[in-house]
Amino acid sequence: MKYHQFYTKNKKIIVLILIGLILIVGLGIGFCVVSFSKKKEIMDQSNEQTRNYIPEHNPSTNIPMKLTNCRLDKTIENIVEYDLSTNNQIKSTNFRSDGQTIENIIEFNPSNEKKLNQLIFDQTVKQ
Question: Which residues form the DUF2963 domain (predicted)?
Answer without folding.
Answer: 73-117
